[in-house]
Amino acid sequence: MAMLKDGTIIIATGGGTVGAIKPGSSFKLTKECELAGGATSIAVRGAGHQIFVGVNKGNIYSINFSDFKPVCVNSCHYSGVMDVAFPAGEGNLFATCSKETIRVWVTDTSSEVLRISVPNMTCHGVCFMQDGRSIISAWNDGKIRAFKPESGTELYTIHDAHKQGVTAIATTNDSSRIVSGGGEGQVRVWDISPKHQQMKAAMKEHKGVVTCIKIRKENMECVSASDDGTCIIWDLNRFVRNQIIFSNTLFKAVCYDPFESQLLTGGSDRKISYWETLDGSQIREMEGSADGSINGLDISADGNYFVSGGNSRKVKVWKYNEGDVTHVGLGHSGDITRIKVCPNSKHIISVSADGAILRWRYPF
């Protein structure tokens, strides 16, 4: 509630109603409007010609007192952000996902250009098909949903993709397949065409939730990380295990180096490890964080640097070959869940459990 200089009372309710009560009106609303979400804060500009209202859905509305029509001036996720993804070779846009929504943002301005809503569901993972024609998403109801990136219109839904929710997702470079991971530990391969989506294979060796999947450029192999303490390299032609990595940790993130001869992993033991893809042997292990799990890793396109983030709430930039920290970014107030270097190497995007999306300058 706020009071203007002329005595008019502005009220904003948890039901999303904003109204004005003028003096002598017997406490009846003389003006009112509805917002998408319950009001959590209110501020008056100047003498009261403009009112700003924040709501619990992550939006800030501006209301001109003369016409009392709300305009959304800023928005963000209102719950933890689960994933972030760039289109292939394109750094001008990126997508994030959270509870009920997928949002697409302009990188340079941080402005929202598209919002996709699926009520009462949580999106665990998002990525762009390599041809840029669809946004592929993983949901806790066990479905894989694809949307048009221009309009957000649903293209198709794969029902019952995983019994315990879809927890990780990736696409091949030829845009013909989706590889998904689930809460039950299975990794599944799907053949995709505009009219048909069919499961090609199901690979079951993980005993825990699949947390991350990355596919090699030639589409012959992929690697899956799980919180059962294993990373498995899969043959995508024979659909069998090529190699397995064991470690005393809950793996949260994995990625290939640009030459795809090594893997980089992070997890609950706070360690960042380098592994050979050929035989699964460990090359190097470093202390990635003084406190908390490593939840996100990404390597720059040239392979000279990689970035990490996790429960320490710090963004760290490392030299890949030397293993030295060059920069540390402070700004998150919640655990960092994912982090990406944009393909054109101009920005780093980090997302966290408090709903924040932070854009960092790169290179420095």
Largest sheet: 7 strands, antiparallel
Spatially, the strands of the biggest sheet line up as 9-10-11-12-13-14-15
Q: What percentage of amino acids are in beta strands? A: over 45%
Oligomerization status of the protein chains: single chain
- Sum up the overall morphology in one term: elongated
- Could you tell me how far the N terminus lies from the C terminus, measured between alpha carbons in angstroms? 44 Å
The low-confidence parts are none
Q: In total, how many beta strands?
A: 34
- Using only C-alpha atoms, the radius of gyration works out to 23 Å
The level of helicity is under 10%
Report the total helices.
0
Average pLDDT confidence is 94
Structural class: mainly beta
Structure description:
With 364 residues, the chain is an all-beta fold. It is built from no helices and 34 strands. A 7-stranded antiparallel beta sheet has the order 9-10-11-12-13-14-15, with no helix packed on it. It has a 4-stranded antiparallel beta sheet with strand order 1-2-3-4, with no helix packed on it. The mean pLDDT is 94.
Main features:
364 residues; mainly beta; seven-stranded antiparallel beta sheet; four-stranded antiparallel beta sheet; 34 strands; 0% helix
What's the SSE blueprint?
Layout: E1 2-3, E2 9-12, E3 17-21, E4 31-34, E5 39-45, E6 50-55, E7 59-64, E8 70-75, E9 83-85, E10 93-97, E11 99-106, E12 112-128, E13 135-139, E14 144-147, E15 154-158, E16 166-171, E17 177-182, E18 186-192, E19 197-204, E20 210-215, E21 221-226, E22 230-235, E23 240-246, E24 251-256, E25 262-267, E26 271-276, E27 282-287, E28 294-299, E29 305-310, E30 314-319, E31 325-330, E32 336-341, E33 347-352, E34 357-361
Antiparallel strand pairs: 1-2, 2-3, 3-4, 5-6, 6-7, 7-8, 9-10, 10-11, 11-12, 12-13, 13-14, 14-15, 16-17, 17-18, 18-19, 20-21, 21-22, 22-23, 24-25, 25-26, 26-27, 28-29, 29-30, 30-31, 32-33, 33-34
